[in-house]
Amino acid sequence: AIDESAGFYKGHACPDCRSLMNVTFTLSSDELTDQFCKEATTQSLDGLKGHRSVGGVRASIYNAFPEEGCRALAQFMRDFAERHG
User: Fold this and answer.
1) Per-residue pLDDT tens over the stretch 54-67
2) Residue 55 CB neighbour total at 10 angstroms
3) 10 Å Cβ neighbour count for 85?
4) Can you give the pTM of this predicted structure?
5) How far is residue 56's CA from residue 52's CA, in Å, rounded to a whole number?
6) Which backbone phi and psi does 61 adopt, to 5 degrees?
7) Which three-class secondary structure state does DSSP give residue 37?
8) Which of 23, 27, 34, 77 lies 20 to 30 angstroms, CA to CA, from 53?
């Protein structure tokens, strides 16, 4: 979803160095990031606010996080980018 967003989302790490457990990315402004997190919460996608020293968005998908949750986040990201891009 990050790479398919045509630059709407920017990954914190180079694609070949990205974590499989922490999906981290930024949006173009703090205001848009806040809006993203607020709208995500209404879709039961919570806890996405990035680390306090880095900012942006962080989705932690450790251990038994369901694959459908990953799909839901990716779909939300596509929808959000379409509405706000």
Assistant:
1) 889 999 988 788 99
2) 15
3) 13
4) 0.90
5) 9
6) -120, 50
7) helix
8) 77
